[in-house]
Amino acid sequence: MNLFLSSVSFILYLVAVCQASGTDIALDAKATLLHRIDSLNLLIYTCLLTLTVLTIWVFKHRRVSWLHETGLAVIYGLIVGAIIRYAGSTNQVTYINVHPAPETKYNLSVPPDMLRLHFPDKMQVSSGDAPVPNKTYAYSFRGEIVNVEQNEIDLKATFDPEIFFNIILPPIIFHAGYCLKRKYFFRNLGAILTFAMVGTALSALVIGALMYGCVQLMPESLATSFTFLDTLYFGALISPTDPLTVLAIFSQLKVDVNLYAMIFGESVLNDAVALVLSGAIQNYELRYSNDGGFEITAFLGAIGDFIGIFSLSLLVGALIGCLTALMTKFTHVREWPLLESALFVLTSYAAFLIAEVCELTGVVAVLFCGICQAHYTYNNLSSDSRNRTKQLFELLNFLAENFIFTYIGVSMFTFPKHHFDPWFIIAGFVTSTLGRAVNIYPLSFLLNLGRNPPIPMNFQHMLFFSGLRGAMSFALAIR
């Protein structure tokens, strides 16, 4: 019977192949090629992560502490990105320049979501070519392009930014909340909230204002292409810190737990603050600003958006965390640890998705969901689920962070929208440093007026030098 079915399937396959046109065969070959290129790119990133893991093991075995794993990931990514960019490829991206007809009824100020390219029957592109069959092909929107001459590997090595926000970032943010040392976090909550919320907003404002002044002194092409809102948005996306290297060194040196809690707590919260702040700036520009001038009502509306979105996102995450705690407490799902762990992971990710669907901020929701899960749900879990969830999110966090830093290195050469300007880069470094200083020292002075014990000056210096930028800034930039 199996032999008969196999024979019938083979005959049907031969009939389909014989009836296929040359275009169908070419499309199948194209799909196969794209699949191979996708597999090659995934293999490249897998090998890079494997190499990073092995190098980390060697460094730990040899007690090498002068280079962190994220730095290794960036270096390896730079090397592979240069190879992809300059090694050359025969698989160039084919393209047709399409211009909208003048009489079109579509609003040309907004790019369409999809382009349908129709080839009428028996159309001949050029002499000697076979007629193009009567077919319609759909092409999805990929954004503005800068470099037209790209090959397939360059194109595929650059991921959709939504992959970062929907798949890569949630485990990192949830792990930060789930593995938080709550005792010292809440002991220093006032300072953490001040640095993360007031400080991040202040830093973004200082960076935006200084960068706007700098670009006015630059060549006319830059001075005319940047508005104050543009530089303010740049300040918002470059303000969040990611002091992974510093915290790793702190863990080895056994530094003061309060200093560790302040640096870690600020880095956890300011990612969420920066994301909401950048969204509020976009809302100001899109919904309120008409002539580019300052509007007090628009400004107050943007502040209202910031507070409302942040608060509602926090509420969504906390509610999902508490709901999971109740489900694990008053049901017998703990008798099946695998189901219990699956329920825990799915509800935690649902907090992120619910916030995004409601036009809130999933990063804020999943962060506070993680904090609530650690505070309430964790105590209701079975011992197997406790160990499994801790280890699972620790593993996902490790892989996701190293993947992002590897991708940063690769995209230095493959990202299609790069525009390098040395003066803008130098100004960005200087203003980011000044923005960090304005965040730490004045706010520490104000906090010390009512704080006991006060934040020592050497702690303030460490807070200042811990202002490294990382995954969130990169994700916001490519989005």
TrEMBL record:
Localization of this protein: Cell membrane; Recycling endosome membrane
Coiled coil: none
Presence of keyword Transmembrane: yes
Any one of the GO CC terms: plasma membrane
Signal peptide: 1-20
GO MF, any single term: sodium:proton antiporter activity
Topology class, membrane: Multi-pass membrane protein
Transmembrane segments: 42-59, 71-88, 163-180, 192-212, 232-250, 298-326, 360-378, 398-416, 422-447
Alphabetically ordered keywords of this record: Antiport, Cell membrane, Endosome, Ion transport, Membrane, Signal, Sodium, Sodium transport, Transmembrane, Transmembrane helix, Transport
Cited PANTHER family: SODIUM/HYDROGEN EXCHANGER (PTHR10110), SODIUM_HYDROGEN EXCHANGER (PTHR10110:SF187)
Homology family: Belongs to the monovalent cation:proton antiporter 1 (CPA1) transporter (TC 2.A.36) family.
Designated name of the protein: Sodium/hydrogen exchanger
